[in-house]
Design brief:
It contains 24 helices and 24 strands. It is of the alpha+beta class and 813 residues long.
């Protein structure tokens, strides 16, 4: 311990003697360690941290499997059968998004909520902090309306009052009795909700139609000791029994199970692994850079080490001293890197909050701090070991006879190796960043099938009672449409439901006129559908290819009509004009005439639409929605507006008009269509930003490394250069000599980097769009850029070498 403390004190004194070197080394390491720490904190929060529920490994997401959807919403009656018949789940619950209008002491506001079955919270292992959860007698038709409050809503609206239990609040015009409060920190799939209500009190007739999937999902908890494959086998048996009992609705329909954590994280794991590898390369570049600095510094201390050896210091003693200094640098760099990681993580997540699942769980916890500590020790050993080993092997007699001017070729070669490694890894990072930039550029060039410029979408609540008729709902929508059209700057408006591009997906089964009616829903064709008004196509900027658009005259008194998209036309009416043909819509129980063919909308996203199973689309007039389904629009609808100028500026007038129509109505979920398109590839943008930052840092570090080595070598070889000039060498010869040395190191690094990039970029293939993982333009451009940067980094030391005075150099000898 005495020796260790002595080494630490001596190391600190040596670092303090060279503040410039120390600052550069610490900053370089801080960038590498900080970037690694920031990304590991993301990986830790998203992939490694267990879900915040008791025994989270037992939680399973339960989906339906239908034509075109492996993870489909489920029907309520099917869920009840799953819940009753399974042998592998200790409990299973169903939930459905349901927002509510709430009128308190101020303006009406929209509350986020879930309709849930009685055992939802017990399945997740969550207990109310106040009151009780739902009971079975709460969760059935005709029961007294009851509600459980989210902790955040309870705190913000009721001041965390302990007297809230038993009080009433008005949601969508109905009085609900408050029976419980859920903890404020509770989240489900990354979201907290304001209110929770019993799902079986939902009185829509379609909810109890086994053929209809009303956007409901399920979660289950496996019994102790039960594995996911065992549960899948159990549920497959239930699906077969239901298919036999209800062939029209459930034939060939399956049940999909996936662990809740995997379902929550989705396909983000490969994306994070690629980024983690990239940031690892950045750390290695930083280590190589600092190793070069240490090697150059140690060469200047050769006489010191020789004298220490002459006084009795052994080989290991010198290595230990140098490693102590390296670990001190790494520790200081790690401390600064931790601070940079804290700022960097907040900046990235704040810039693109929707790009990652579980982003709210990302933090610098104890696991991240241990990672940073271990990384700092690793970095200190990695960049300190090679210089320590090389410097500690001194020839005592030669070093003591030298003036300190010369340096061995072996050390030159080691520095060249470090530079080549830096260039190789910088090239790999630059190629990765270049491919993501080109992918994003290719995505921006994709036509989404609509014109997002000057278009905006939002949701609109329509508060009403259970007795609201279809006629009253239609009248409300027509009045709203009229009020929107007279707002200055509004060019077109449409109320819509069903699918919304890149926001919400809804499909319907159908068969074409002339075909035999399929025996069950699974055997029918499927298409995405949009409920639209006459202004929808203009508001969205959809093109008309044949026939006509839906118009206001296509109302509840006119024959049922639809517009189909060009994919629908090519798929089901190849080589013929579909206008005038008919299709049968099973769940609507109508026959619709095709009146036009419109352009295809990239419903699933710019990069995923062509991979989706269901691509065909049709537009159905909103006012022709069947009477039994019109109540679905009585609570809330979506709206699309096209404006002359900035669509966000028009929303002030929209909100004012809505308040004049009915103060209880609420506008919410406002998004410009440009934002919708941009958000559809937020993860790709995050990847591009991070890889771009890492690549830029790598390029700077490689440039600094080349400059440092060439500058040092020029200083060490000033005597040799002076002799060359004295013997007749021209200044351009000196320039060629110095730049050539740097260019050779860069070319070797580029060659190695290209080989590594050809292998590693294959890991990114699934994350690229419109560009090959081995794109020659990207590889060539990056290689040329690195060589130019390397030559530029050599130019300043080369100019200094050209100014060497041969008489001064010879006199110094």
């Amino acid at each position: 311990m005495d020796t260790l403390l002595q080494d630490l004190r001596y190391g600190l004194r040596m670092l303090a003697k060279t503040p410039g070197f120390t600052a550069i080394a610490i900053l370089t390491l801080a960038l590498g360690i900080g970037a690694n720490t920031a990304l590991f904190s993301v990986v830790n929060g998203v992939l490694l941290t267990p879900l915040a529920y008791p025994h989270p490994g037992q939680l399973v997401a339960v989906y339906g499997k239908t034509t075109g959807f492996d993870h489909a919403p489920i029907g309520y009656l099917n869920f009840l059968d799953w819940q009753h018949d399974n042998q592998t789940f200790s409990c299973m619950a169903i939930y459905r998004n349901q927002d509510y209008n709430f009128v308190g002491t101020g303006e009406a506001e929209r509350l986020s909520g879930y309709m849930i079955s009685a055992d939802f919270f017990s399945t997740l292992g969550v207990r109310p902090i106040l009151g009780r959860p739902f009971r079975l007698d709460d969760d059935h038709p005709g029961a007294e309306p009851v509600v459980i409050l989210g902790g955040g809503f309870w705190k913000s609206k009721f001041g965390s009052s302990l007297e809230i239990i038993g009080k009433s609040i008005i949601l969508n015009g109905t009085s609900y009795t408050i029976v419980g409060v859920i903890p404020a920190g509770f989240t489900f799939y990354g979201h907290d909700r304001d209110v929770y209500t019993p799902i079986d009190q939902y009185n829509d007739s379609s909810f109890r139609d086994r053929r209809v999937e009303m956007s409901a999902h399920a979660v289950g908890r496996l019994k102790p000791g039960v594995t996911l494959p065992q549960a899948k086998a159990d549920m497959d048996g239930i699906a077969q029994n239901l298919a036999a009992a209800y062939p029209e609705a459930d034939k060939d329909a399956g049940i999909a199970l996936v662990s809740m954590k995997e379902d929550l994280v989705g396909n983000v794991q490969p994306f994070l692994i690629v980024l983690l590898a990239a940031v690892g390369f950045l750390l290695l570049i930083a280590c190589a850079n600092v190793a070069n600095l240490l090697l150059a510094r140690a060469m200047g201390r050769s006489r010191e080490f020789a004298i220490r050896a002459a006084l009795g210091a052994n080989h290991m003693r010198v290595i230990r001293q140098l490693l102590t200094e390296s670990i001190l640098l790494a520790g200081l760099g790690g401390a600064l890197g931790l601070l940079l990681a804290f700022w960097g993580t907040k900046a990235v997540l704040g810039t693109l909050p929707g790009a990652l699942p579980r982003a709210n769980e990302v933090s610098l916890d104890s696991r991240v701090l241990l990672f940073t500590l271990g990384l700092s020790l690793f970095a200190g050993i990695v960049f300190g070991l090679a210089p320590a080993l090389k410097t500690s092997r001194v020839n005592l007699q030669e070093i003591l006879k030298e003036s300190g001017r010369g340096v061995s070729g072996a050390r030159h070669r080691l520095q060249g190796v470090f530079v080549a490694v830096e260039v190789a890894m910088a090239l790999i990072l630059l190629v990765g960043a270049g491919l993501t930039v080109r992918s994003l550029a290719a995505l921006w060039r994709v036509d989404p099938g609509f014109n997002p410029s000057h278009a905006i979408t939002f949701s609109l609540s329509l508060p009403g009672a259970d007795t609201t008729t279809s006629g009253e709902t239609r009248a409300r929508l027509r009045h709203f449409h009229e009020q929107m059209q007279i707002i200055p700057g509004v060019q077109a408006v449409s109320v819509t439901l069903g699918s919304r591009p890149m926001i919400h997906n809804s499909s319907l089964p159908f068969w074409v006129e002339g075909e035999a009616k399929p025996a069950n829903l699974q055997d029918m064709h499927q298409a995405m559908f949009y409920l639209v008004e006459g202004g929808f196509q203009r508001a969205m900027g959809v093109t008309l290819e044949r026939g006509r658009f839906v118009t206001p005259q296509d109302d509840e008194h006119a024959p049922v009509v639809i517009d189909i998209d060009d994919v629908f036309a090519r798929t089901y009416f190849p080589h013929e004009n579909p206008v005038g043909k008919h299709i049968h819509l099973a769940l609507f129980n109508v026959q619709a005439e095709i009146i036009g063919v419109v352009g295809h909308i990239k419903q699933w996203g710019l990069d995923a639409d062509e991979k989706s199973t269901i691509q065909a689309q049709f537009d159905y007039p909103f006012m022709q929605l069947p009477e039994k389904l019109m109540p679905l629009a009585a609570d809330a609808v979506a709206v699309v507006l096209r404006t002359e100028g900035d669509p966000a500026a028009v929303m002030v007038s929209v909100r004012r008009a809505v308040q004049e129509i009915d103060p209880r109505e609420v506008v919410y979920n406002v998004q410009t269509m440009d934002e919708v398109v941009s958000n559809s590839f937020a993860a790709r943008r995050l990847s591009m930003i991070l890889l771009g930052v890492f690549a830029a840092l790598a390029l700077v570090l490689a440039c600094v490394g080349i400059y440092g080595v060439i500058s040092y070598l020029v200083g060490q070889r000033s005597h040799e250069i002076g002799i060359r000039v004295a013997l007749g060498a021209q200044r351009r010869d000196v320039l060629r000599l110095v730049i050539g040395h740097g260019a050779r190191m860069a070319l070797i690094g580029v060659a190695i980097g290209i080989g590594g990039a050809l292998g590693l970029t294959r890991l990114m293939a699934n994350q690229l769009f419109g560009v090959s993982a081995h794109d020659p333009l990207t590889f060539a451009g990056v290689a040329i850029l690195l060589i130019i940067v390397a030559v530029a980094a050599c130019y300043i030391p080369a100019r200094r070498a050209m100014q060497v005075d041969p008489m001064t150099a010879l006199r110094c000898d």
